[in-house]
Automatic annotation (TrEMBL):
InterPro entries: AAA_dom, DNA_Partitioning_ATPase, P-loop_NTPase. It comes from the Bacteria. Transmembrane segments: none annotated. Keywords: Plasmid. SUPFAM superfamilies: P-loop containing nucleoside triphosphate hydrolases. This is ParA family protein. Pfam families: AAA_31. Residues 3-155 form the AAA domain. It comes from Lacticaseibacillus paracasei (Lactobacillus paracasei).
Length: 271
């Protein structure tokens, strides 16, 4: 069964792109077919794959002035629809469009066969850190929203609360008039990211999130993640047998496995 996931947070820099890049490649290495959609006008996900200025980007979905998107193969079992620096400004022009949150939904519906989208087990959308019309289009097609949070004051529990509130607001806005049932079915899952092993703050954070059902995994802090996107290499390619990294790589495989398991599940009602 295909799972569609929007990676989203209201705070910037929590690790969405870096983790989406590595998680997708990891899924690919396990034999899963993955489609990535770079849905952020910063285009960091495309850049991580060495794609800088493709003429056929996600912008074509939202604006007829742009060429139709093309799917590129970027890694073993991983394909990408590249991002566009224009996506943010295109989003602002949509304010007065009717059904403005259904543009991606309708495009998918129309192009599903032509683009052979049924072959993907996972479609992951990396997004800009906001709940704009563009992000809402991604949420609209998703089974889950996956959010990365950090053990910091604004990037942690505050960020969780703010995303939950925005999701709730969107769910209650986007309802079928007669039945009041929401078009938005995605639930919100959280992953702790950049969590150290040995600081007080991270210790407290681990303890708190271990009791939260919607926090599905915790990813350790590791400087190597920064290298991985710059050098276009999956994090596990740095596994060189150095004993000091054994625990990190073992833990990361377990945590990526937990994310996969949570994504594979049907969405939680009312979450
Ligand atoms: N587990 C981690 N340990 C250490 N550094 C990390 C980890 N995950 C991500 N980072 C680093 O955090 C920084 C921000 O990451 P990234 O760009 O992926 O965040 P983002 O949420 O996509 O940002 P934006 O909101 O701007 O799109 C990068 O330097 C990245 O290498
Ligand atoms: Mg990003």
């Amino acid at each position: 069964m295909q799972r569609i996931v929007t990676v989203l947070s209201t705070k910037g820099g929590t690790g969405k792109t870096t983790q989406t890049y590595n998680f997708a490649k990891w899924l690919g290495s396990q034999g899963h077919q993955v489609l990535l959609i770079d849905h952020d006008h910063q285009m960091n996900l495309s850049t991580a794959f060495g794609i800088f200025n493709s003429p056929n980007t996600i912008a074509g979905v939202y604006d007829k002035e742009f060429k139709d998107p093309k799917i590129l193969n970027v890694s073993k079992n991983v394909d990408l629809i590249p991002g566009s620096m224009h996506l943010g400004s295109i989003g602002e022009t949509l304010i007065n469009r009717t059904m403005r949150e259904f543009i991606l939904y309708n495009w998918l519906d129309k192009n599903y066969e032509a683009y052979d989208l049924g072959k993907y087990e996972y479609i992951l959308l990396d997004s800009h850190p906001d709940v704009s019309i563009i992000s809402k289009n991604a949420i609209m097609i998703s089974n889950h929203v996956l959010s990365f949070v950090e053990p910091s004051q604004f990037g942690g529990f505050d960020a969780m609360d703010s995303l939950k509130a925005r999701m709730q607001e969107f769910k209650s806005e986007a309802v079928v008039p007669r039945t009041q049932q929401s078009y938005v079915t995605a639930d919100t899952l959280f992953v702790g990211n950049k969590v150290a092993y040995n600081t007080n703050a991270s210790h407290e954070f681990r303890k708190s999130v271990s009791e939260m059902k919607d926090v599905v995994a915790v990813i350790p802090q590791k400087e190597l993640f920064n290298r991985s996107t710059i050098e276009h290499r999956m994090i596990f390619e740095y596994e060189d047998g150095d004993q000091r990294n054994t625990k990190f790589f073992r833990d990361l495989r377990i945590e990526y496995g937990k994310i996969k398991q949570a994504i594979d599940k049907p969405e939680e009602e009312g979450n």
